[in-house]
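> forwarded from #structure-qc
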């Protein structure tokens, strides 16, 4: 079976924040620690009423193109416990977007979100951010980060993916968890368990999950009964969902191979399943 390499799956997040008035507050340095006037950066640092106000200011600064002030404000907000600020900074460092690419710093910010999450005192607006952070920490833990303190730890990756998959219904986590069962990384190989997680993600239009589920069903495997028509349907959906991005060429290849091997009956059954899927979605 063709399996793509693990990747850091990140999802978007948004926050609705109540408006507050800005007022003088403590000056915070770029590293998030208090800074006195004597050793302040030559460029004046912004002053914020509270972390929430800093978050709003930082996001607005980035929208207006002021990345330096935006970075300062987000670090203030992150140091004050704002999950969205931590997530934004983590994503910036992971992607090298406006800052030098640094997976270790990205991991640290994602881990802060995970470590400070309290499911008994969480808000709905933070759910996407927290869910994404669990997946990201899992992805980094699965492979480790070269030349850093973050070593490969499949058991922690399994814990992170399971939590996000079960508690948040996160499709990326469900897919990554399925991959662990397919590859036998951190767990015993179990195609049946993998298929169950893939199905949950595939129903959410997760293209990679649809492709792997389709291949599993089309070819069959120990623990997964062969259902060529249903498998072809999932592969067809995966191809449609994946678009023209070159990184998804493997999905197109799987579909084309299965379609070439499918009988007319397989294709007719796939069409019926596809019609039913579209009615449900």
């Amino acid at each position: 079976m063709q399996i793509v390499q693990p990747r850091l799956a990140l999802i978007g997040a948004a926050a609705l924040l109540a408006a507050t008035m800005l007022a003088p507050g403590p000056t915070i340095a770029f590293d998030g620690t208090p800074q006195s006037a004597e050793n302040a950066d030559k460029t004046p640092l912004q002053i914020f009423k509270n972390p929430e106000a800093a978050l709003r200011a930082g996001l607005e600064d980035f929208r207006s193109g002021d990345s330096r002030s935006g970075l300062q404000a987000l670090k203030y907000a992150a140091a004050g416990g704002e999950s969205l600020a931590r997530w934004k900074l983590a994503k910036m460092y992971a992607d090298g977007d406006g800052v030098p690419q640094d997976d270790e710093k990205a991991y640290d910010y994602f881990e802060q979100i995970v470590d400070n999450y309290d499911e008994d005192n969480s808000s709905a607006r933070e759910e996407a951010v927290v869910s994404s952070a669990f997946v990201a920490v899992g992805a980094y833990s699965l492979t480790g980060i070269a030349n850093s303190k973050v070593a490969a730890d499949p058991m922690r990756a399994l814990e992170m993916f399971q939590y996000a998959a079960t508690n948040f219904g996160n499709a990326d986590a469900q897919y990554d968890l399925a991959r662990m069962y397919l590859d036998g990384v951190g767990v015993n190989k179990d195609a049946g368990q993998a298929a169950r997680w893939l199905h949950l993600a595939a129903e959410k239009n997760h293209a990679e999950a649809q492709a792997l589920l389709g291949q599993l069903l089309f070819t069959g495997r120990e623990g997964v009964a062969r259902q060529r028509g249903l498998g072809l349907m999932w592969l067809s959906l995966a191809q449609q969902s994946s678009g023209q991005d070159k990184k998804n060429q493997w999905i197109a290849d799987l579909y084309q191979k299965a379609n070439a091997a499918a009988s007319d009956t397989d294709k007719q059954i796939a069409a019926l399943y596809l019609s039913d899927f579209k009615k449900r979605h």
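QC bot note: The chain has a mean pLDDT of 86. The longest helix spans residues 127-143.
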